[in-house]
Structure prediction request, 477 residues.
Amino acid sequence: MSTTQGSPMLATTLSKDALTQQQKLQSLTPREIVAELDKYIIGQGNAKKSVAIALRNRWRRQQVQGSMRDEIMPNNIIMIGPTGVGKTEIARRLAKLAGAPFVKVEATKFTEVGYVGRDVESMIRDLAEIAVNIVRAEKQEEVRLAAHKAVEMRILDVLIPPVVRRAGSFGFENGEEAEEVIENAGTRDKFLAQLQNGDLEDRIIEIEIQDNAPQMQVLGPIGMDEMSMNLQDMLGGMMPKRTKKRKVTVGEARQLLEQEEAEKLIDMEAVTRDAITRAENTGIVFIDEIDKVAVANGGTGGPDVSRSGVQRDLLPIVEGSTVSTKYGALRTDHVLFIASGAFHVAKPSDLIPELQGRFPIRVELESLQEEDFYKILTIPENALIKQYQALMGSEDLTLVFEEAAIREIAATAAYVNQEVVNIGARRLHTILTTLLEEILYNTPDNVADKTVTITANLVTERLTGIARNQDLSKYIL
Prediction:
């Protein structure tokens, strides 16, 4: 009785906590949003300001009453800048900050020779799928304690199956079935106490779980993704769920069974409704390499036909339409679209005018300089140097970078980007991998000291020869 009464209370508490966290994130002021983005992304203040305003406007729209709320459309954004300057990271961090469904697609995915790319509506179906996964995970957390209790009872039934008899030996009393009595209740209580204390975690038991073997896939021709999904769901629903028996420890059984029990406690129809609503009102779609589908100088032949076709297919999605997904219809009117591109060859004005009009906000991101590389290496919470220090820490090795060494790494990255190919902050990955290659390879076999210091001389020795020689630049690309 106590379990039944306690679980809804916990679910309600967790639901309120989740709601409070979501309200806190969505009510961040633009300055606070930029401050959060500054923890992970260096520079690009104009782009951060634009996305912060876009996110805050979503919260503002939710406060508007009446029919005016539906009339307020999001201001979609085009980010213009070279690769590796933070365009994708800004959009991804923004979505994570808001707890919003986020999809990243490359515009070139929708165009190939003869325009045989994927249906552009597939990115909205992906958005719905991600939204459902987010909401499902939240609901599973809400019912976690109830699922944990249910798993304990399933494991207890395997350890000590209940012995049941009727309270009345003559079957029925007053027209109702007699109450059941568990004969071995005392023994079960003792095992339940041991189970809850963790004393039985290593005991081997045999459990029955759902068989999640790959199901039959239904493949449709290009542009028929939705029909294929519907056929697959229909055929999958006609087939009974299979189960299989496995011998595992009690600890492993908990992990295997908690997912099943949580699924039983979740109302998937409510999950689907909430997910569609969240995708419609908070979803973010990031369209990368949109400059690759722009038609430079008004060209109309060859692959340009395919590019124009992609733009015209993108137009109704960005403008606002209803897309059928396996979870129901999803309106894109209030989905925030963020496009990006280097625009080295084509220009934003080379996009079809209708599509240009659906991206009213344009921000230019600046190329990274030597000082930017230094800040990228040291300031963000997920800075590359901190990542490598954490990796080496798993081997009980302390990796120390001198100030001069970090400056030299930043200078090398800036020089190579200028002289070879500008790939932005991604250059730091290749440079640090080259610099630390011997340490990464020799640890822990041939490293006697527990502390390794990276000096400016070491950086110069490892990188200068490659960086200064154009013929050897392939080694760090």
